Amino acid sequence: EPRVFSGIQPTGIPHLGNYLGALQSWVHLQERYHTVLYSIVDLHSITVPQDPGTLRQSVLDMAACLLACGISPAQSCIFQQSQVAEHAELAWILSCLTSMPRLRHLPQWKVKSQRQNNEGSVGLFTYPVLQAADILLYRATHVPVGDDQVQHLELTQDTARLFNRLYGDFFPIPKAIMGTSKKIRSLRDPSSKMSKSDPHKLATVRLTDSPEEIVMKFRKAVTDFTSEVTYDPEGRPGVSNLVAIHSAVTGLSAEEIVGRSRGMETAQYKLAVAEAVIQKLRPIREEMHRLQKDRGYLQGVLRQGAQRAKEMAAPVYDSVCRLVGFR
Ligand code: ATP
Ligand code: MG
């Protein structure tokens, strides 16, 4: 029986990259699959320092955001990772199957430990192992992820294969499902991806940004010295990122976008992209503001989600314990 699992960190309001790379496909998948789990992965979020009050609020904001994007608690199990203790328990077992060199070259570790003067925590280093546990704990078969998570998912696949070889065929090997767009890049630095935890305020367009903020961020987006719209991600990453965003929010191909923008100066084009983004995000933003006022409802959704997730996780973890020799 196919099962879908994915997660998002409560590290702030999601941005366009999260939406186009992941959340949008999450909505479609709940129509196509019977069992779908979406986790607000708070255990992952503390791999970098978090303020407790902010974290508590971010979990509720994320729940509101998932619902506002169209994820339905009737079709999907929406839950907070830390409420299902088996995630951390399985992660321990899997960490004993994973070698240090296997983790050292993964992109997340490099980027986020650099932000902390190369003094990242042990948790940040082993984060992909917890991610493997998240997926395998539900014996998930399909994992919708953005471009930036492909290498992490490969680790999950390797870990599942190794476990199966050592202890008997137990975990399905999960497949990646990619979002509608490739990696969306930072508006300030097209060499890095758009990230919730990017300290630069103008780098990300959040799903709750006002039209004025969106215009301002696109106006200040870093491009290059050629004032012409072309799509060349290698040579012109800044402008090409704008085209990629424009293409993803309108459904037109990059070629069509470039064709229609012939003769436009970059400054003018930025406003056209901003306008398309504003249209796309308007309903999400409005619904999000409505839901944020109803904390009781959000807490109820998370409580029920955690209960269902726990019911699925417990028997899998119990089998793992038997296979490993704990029972
Ligand atoms: P953080 O900076 O806290 O890691 P993030 O923006 O990277 O936040 P995550 O919660 O780590 O977001 O990831 C949630 C989902 O969004 C994942 O499936 C990830 O692949 C996807 N995603 C994140 N950033 C991008 C991006 N720039 N483009 C496309 N998909 C993305
Ligand atoms: Mg991330």
Overall 3D form: globular
Radius of gyration: 20 Å
For the biggest sheet, the summary is: 3 strands, parallel
In the predicted model, the low-confidence regions spanning at least 5 consecutive residues are: none
Tally of individual helices = 13
State the name of the first-level CATH class of the largest domain: Alpha Beta
CATH architecture verdict of the largest domain: 3-Layer(aba) Sandwich
Distance between the termini: 27 Å
Organism: Xenopus tropicalis
InterPro entries: aa-tRNA-synth_I_CS (IPR001412), aa-tRNA-synth_Ic (IPR002305), Rossmann-like_a/b/a_fold (IPR014729), Trp-tRNA-ligase (IPR002306), Trp-tRNA-ligase_bac-type (IPR024109), Trp-tRNA_synthetase (IPR050203)
Family: Belongs to the class-I aminoacyl-tRNA synthetase family.
Catalytic activity: tRNA(Trp) + L-tryptophan + ATP = L-tryptophyl-tRNA(Trp) + AMP + diphosphate + H(+)
Task: Itemize the secondary structure elements and their pairings.
Blueprint: E1 3-8, H1 16-32, E2 35-40, H2 42-45, H3 52-69, E3 77-80, H4 86-95, H5 100-104, H6 107-114, H7 122-136, E4 142-145, H8 150-167, E5 175-178, H9 211-219, H10 237-250, H11 254-260, H12 266-292, H13 295-324
Parallel strand pairs: 1-2, 2-3, 4-5
